Amino acid sequence: MKHDDTTIFSSYERNPSLYDEIFDENGNVQKTYETLFDLYGKHSIEDYVNLNSKAKASFFNQGITFQVYNEKKTQEKIFPFDLFPRIIHPEEWDIIERGAIQRSKALNLFLWDIYHEKKIIRQGIIPMELISSSANYLHQMIDVDPPGGIYNHISGTDIIKHNDGAYYVLEDNIRCPSGVSYVISNRTALKRALFGVFNHYQAYSVTNYAENLLDLLESTKPKGVDIPNCVVITPGMYNSAFFEHSYLAKTMGVELVEGRDLFVEKDFVYMKTIHGPEKVDVIYRRIDDQFLDPLEFRADSTLGVPGLFAAYKKGNVTLANAPGTGVADDKAVYTYMPEIIKYYLDEEPILNNVLTYHCSRPDELNYVLENIDKLVIKPVDEAGGYGISIGNRLTKKEIEVVKIQVKENPRKYVAQPIMSLSVHPTYIEDSESFEQRHVDLRTFTILGKDKEFVLKGGLTRVALQKGNLIVNSSQGGGSKDTWVLKK
Amino acid sequence: MLARVANNLFWMGRYIERTEHIARFMNVNYFSSLDAPHELSHSRQFVLRSMMFMVGEHVNEDSEQLNEQNTLYKIGLDSEFPYSVINSIRNARENANSARDLISTELYESINKFYHFVVNYPVDKFVKNGLYDFTVNVTEMTAILRGKIRGTLLHDSVYAIIMMGINIERATQIIRIINTKYNDALLAQGSYGDKFSNSFEWTTLLKCTESYDMMRRFYKKTPTSISTLEFLILNPNCPRSIMNSLNQVHNHIRVLDPSKAYNKNSTAFLVGKVRAEFQYKYIEEIEEDIQSFIENILNNLTKISQKMEKEFFNY
Asked: Superkingdom, according to UniProt (chain A) (predicted)?
């Protein structure tokens, strides 16, 4: 297909060293994208600018926003959304789906083990320090049996497509992974703006997440409960993910509560309703471990519920995800994922791990210190893209600073080769044209005693700044609708 | 339903209703004054003062000259002024936000759209020539919200709480508007031989409450003080009347807890009592001392609101 001079793709610049998901190395459109490229190519720039602003308005009207505080007034912003969707082939999706489930199951068995017999450590497969030095390992969880044996009910797996065309897992998020509501609202926004494109592709619907989540929550009910009362707990309406919390509560048809709406009496949890206390059985919690219960964790937490952990330990209430899961999404544990999968499931990993150097091992530390310019240095216990240094972006002076940081606390850091995230054509408002931007994919997996579910879609996140590799929304990332095609 | 969330829904209802009354009051008063028959009611100062009175801001009788643009801005788009249209819709939305999981997507989106319309309305346009456009849009959008509340929510306790909020606020605003226009009619009497009982202000009052046409249909006569007050206070079939609001409050409170109607400490009992007293009032008796009547009804509405807080929202 040739580029037409008057359309929105006419000024698309292709950097041949990057892996472009829609153009091959000769600049031809990949077969899957041909129809889409044609359809979008019909729009004039003016047309597209208009569509884009309508899509933005749709997010404002749907109230899918977060607040930014200035000195004078609070401003409401939307998470940037790109109208050009990403397509994933059924064959590729099959690998992603099986791989995500495999990782969730292995992580779950790993969590059970390290909070009980610690076989994997005793057999020398992973070192004790990895666990004992982790800030997210909760001694309170030792020998606690979560209902159904499930710790990570909900997992978010961050996956990239490297320039070899294969998918790699960057990290597992098994604390309170967020973003699933954006998968659904991105779809809604795209349908409103460009409904015509859906006539040409058969993509899976993404609206069945909530029913599967509710199914899961109900299946984790405490013993002796017939019809469980499930709730979602949120830190409150000023939390940046509040939209998601209210969305999930609404679509599941359950109550959205804050810590102050709950209280614990004789190790049972109740919520304060207009007709008095009502018992709560299952809590999908969207507040972090440390804030759950001021009696057990951070004493200054006002978000949690005093006595909640004691009720949980007694088995009177279920928490999803279980407390203490953070230890397993530590980036240092990540590097052992191939071993963990092999050990518990006796399977080879379906999804690749990125080669990782542990700064805690002296020989690897030396390699890292000498090759910082070729590596990405990551703190092991941070989320949201904070604290990451990308070697080839640093000045000599900055490299020295990173070296000192790593040497001072080697356990805190791991290093990986700089992975080349694939790029996807993304509409850039400033230039009113499409440009290449790096993307990744977060999938959402639900794991129950007799349940495995991966949402067919996932959140494609885009790094909006040119050349930037960090896609997190807290770092100015946007997102795209993601189509998993039917076979 | 959570007690905290019920409180938010109650106030969401109140603020939605309040937004409408403020906007319509501005619209009707401003535009009916443009060709008003009398010197005083034609005067811009008179109208601006009337608007300020309605939103509870007392202006020094003669000394202070009100600036038109400043006054319109204050009541319409001033975030610093608690009783402004912009603050009412902001509060309605804030309350809806925290109950977002309980209300329908359709209702929430309409509130949100409404909020963005008001927040993004250019101030300059509004104070110069946007008053009509702005207030008409605001009143229409509140009608949409009422439609979404009635048409998309489950008619259960969530609905009952919102409707309680709407009707308590409606009665409150209607009585404030009556008070304001009654006051205007008193001030305007005598100019060009205008008599109190046939004042031009009664027509304005009816239009402020969107009840003019139906009042004409009901009485088949030009509005007088007695017929206007009777219609707006006592007629149970006039959807804006105090009686109608009380009847609705009475219906909805019984949904919330039917068994408590005979408990003398319950909200349901109090509402029933206030309503019963009202049913056997007649207009001549009210007109004898309208000021005490107004104080009394506002007092009762506050009491109902406080009782609800104690019974349902105490968390």
From this structure: Bacteria
- Say how many domains are in chain A: 2
In angstroms, the separation between the Cα of residue B81 and the nearest Cα of chain A is 15
Which two three-digit tokens encode residue B204? 């304005």
B16-51: pLDDT as tens digits: 999 999 999 999 999 988 887 777 777 889 899 999
Predicted TM-score of the model (pTM): 0.87
Domain count, chain B: 1
Task: Round the average pLDDT of chain A to a whole number and report it.
Answer: 90
Q: Does A361 fall in a domain?
A: yes
Quick check: helix, strand or coil at residue A158? strand
With a cut of 50, say whether residue A352 has pLDDT above it. Answer: yes
- HSE toward the beta carbon, residue B196, CA cutoff 13 A: 8
Does residue A371 share a domain with residue A307? no
- A394: in domain: yes
Of residues A61, A63, A250, nearest to B101 (C-beta)? A250
A279 vs A214: CA distance, rounded Å: 18
Question: Where do we find the tokens 């339903």?
Answer: B1
CATH number of residue A400's parent domain: 3.30.1490.270
Q: For position A274, which CATH number holds?
A: 3.40.50.11290
Instruction: Render A113-126 in DSSP notation, one character per residue.
Output: HHTTT-HHHHTTSS
Domain range spanning residue A402? 355-417
Chain B, nearest residue to A63 by Cα? B112
Domain ranges, residue B285: 3-312
**CB of A325 closer than 8 Å to CB of A115:** no
Which helix or strand (DSSP H or E) is residue A426 part of? strand A423-428
The ipTM estimated for the assembled molecules is 0.82
Contact A286, A234 (CB under 8 A): yes
Res A173: pLDDT: 93
Contact A273 B101 (CB under 8 A): no
A398 domain-assigned: yes
Are A160 and A167 in contact by the 8 Å Cβ rule? The answer is yes
A51 found inside a domain: no
